[in-house]
Write a structure and sequence with these properties.
This protein is of the alpha/beta class. It is built from 6 helices and 9 strands.
Length: 239
Amino acid sequence: MNHLQHKTILLTGASKGIGRATALALAGLQTNLGLVARSEAELLSLKAEVEALGSQCEIFAGSVADESLAVRSTAKLLDRFGRIDVLINNAGYGNSKPFEQFTEQEWDELYATNVKGTFLFSKAVAPAMKQAGSGHIIIIASDVAKRTFATGALYCSSKYAQHAFGDAIRKELRPHKVKVSTVYSGLVDSYFHADPQGAASHSWWLQNEDMARSIVFIANQPAHVVIDEFMIHPLEQDY
């Protein structure tokens, strides 16, 4: 059953990888989409595809670490569609090397996207969701929110922060009938990694479409059902 038809969904990190696949999957369900990414050109191209699939779409170009972008995109969707039903905090990136080689700027920039962006967009949509007595915030984290690896101190700690943030706001928002779900994924064949998307080294990894189907499944539950946490891996990855 399609519980998402005519629902308004705000998706960050929409132009590539998991975000792009999720936008297209949601577009096929006749939703109202707000798509956020850095590249306006990529967003314009995606908007055309989304609308060709029968969904309405607004695009917002900029950094998720910019509070004005979070406020502006939320206000625009509320003005056009009257509500925001789902926020998907997908924007993020990572890098790995010995921790003492990271610069202060690299730390600030990664935390700004992975952690601050999740905070700002969740903060922006929460008042309208609480007023409506419904809504759903989905955080795309990583399985390294629950484990660590050498050379991953910066990335892992940012994902642990997303995990903790999601756990805390879940407790705050549940009394208002607002759901919070966190997704913990293993290896995904996306632009995110050193080897390019589609590389032979990624042949057994999760595909972006696998992640998109999982995200849609979480969002498409009936109002009384919440998937608090969702762990997903390729079969060959030993978690």
